[in-house]
Amino acid sequence: MNTTTIPQSEFEERIKRFQANIRKENLDACLVHATESDMAHVRYLSEYWPTFETGAVFVPAEGEPVLLVGPESDLYASHRSFFKNIEKLIEYRESAEPDAPGMSFITYKDLIAKYVPQGIKKLGIIGWAITSLPVYMALKEQLPGVKLVKADMTLWPLRFVKSDNELACMRKAFEISELAVEAILNEIKPGMTEFQVIGIAQREIYKHGGEYEGHSLYCFCGESTNNAISRPTHNKIVENEVIQLNIGARVSGYSSSVGLPFSIGPLPERKRRLVEFGLEAHKKTIELLRAGKPAGTVVNEYEAWVKEQGFGQYLLYGPCHSIGMMEVERPWMESTSEYLLEENMTFQVDTFFYDKDFGLRWENGAIVKEGGAELMSSKFMKYTEI
């Protein structure tokens, strides 16, 4: 059983392109890591998504890749991935660190001897920020003559521009997210907790074919809406206050997120004005997106426009971040960004403003095109008062 809608041929092409980059960087192999929460690189290459344990893909410059899993995951991995080569290493066990008595494992030294018998001198590490200390210490101990190199950028650029299959997954994920938001707006009532509201979204995501949430789902009401990052609580929904939603479904590995502020009953004028300006700024960002434009220019033009409108004091960051297998992934779009936007890059237009006692976020997915941007979600780009 294969769970993806990405064909095997596309996975195989990804590996070929990745190996070309490995050779270009004069590396002998790369070790690509994933956790349950940040599975993107490993899933991008193999379709495998670790559960409880961690995982990796070992990719030699020449030859077949190998999926590396922990004590409990070999059968699961063989059902989920098309990889022929799957090996168990104790370093990918779960964080409770079971001894796994009676089980057999290979070492990194064994791995190299089996799949690259001529040996290696330089090993690229991808997923550097999530590579665990047990993995790193084992590599240093077992491969003392091998130089470990941070090599994230041998793989990341392959994920920047999305294929037609990837875009189809993302469009479906956004469609499901919109259905979940619609259900919330139809069912939300004063007195519900933020958790109960998120329960509506989770029901709808799975009901309509999502494989998981795209990220930690947001529902905040009142003062906590000024948190840039947070989680729902037992806080109750009240009338005449900003309620913030960020709802994202995941489809075949690809994430989405639809974000909007709304209220039950009218907002005080001060709060409504910032909410409405946030939507203006959101639309301004979309106007600025087009293939061939420097990413940093988009940011600088957006920030200058916000300040010209007299709302600079409410600006924390913005206006976009990339989206794909993770709700936030590279490339970042910042004032220092020098890369050019390319056709079929995908970004979240992420418009966040905050004051001392409330905040708001408008968020929608966009595909960069030559003449502008194609929105993957636009249904709720309007001021909503229930």
Structure description:
The protein is an alpha+beta fold. Helix content is 33%, strand content 21%. It is built from ten helices and 17 strands. The chain has a six-stranded mixed β-sheet, with helices on one face. Helix 7 crosses helix 8 (194-207) and helix 9 runs antiparallel to helix 10 (295-308). The chain is globular, with a radius of gyration of 23 Å.
Question: Topology, pairings included?
Answer:
Elements lengths: L7 H17 L4 E6 L5 H7 L8 E6 L5 E4 L4 H7 L5 E3 L19 H8 L6 E5 L6 H10 L4 E4 L5 H5 L3 H24 L6 H14 L4 E2 L4 E4 L21 E5 L1 E2 L7 E6 L5 H20 L6 H14 L11 E3 L6 E4 L13 E9 L4 E11 L2 E4 L8 E2 L1
Parallel strand pairs: 1-5, 3-4, 5-6, 11-17
Antiparallel strand pairs: 1-2, 2-3, 7-10, 8-9, 9-11, 12-13, 12-14, 14-15, 15-16
Largest sheet, if any? 6 strands, mixed
Q: Which regions contain 5 or more consecutive residues with pLDDT less than 50?
A: none
The H-and-E topology, N to C, reads as HEHEEHEHEHEHHHEEEEEHHEEEEEE
Total number of strands: 17
Mean pLDDT: 96
Give a summary of the structure in a few sentences.
It is built from 10 helices and 17 strands. With 386 residues, the protein is α+β, with helices and mostly antiparallel strands. The longest helix is centred in the middle third of the chain and has 24 residues, at 164-187.
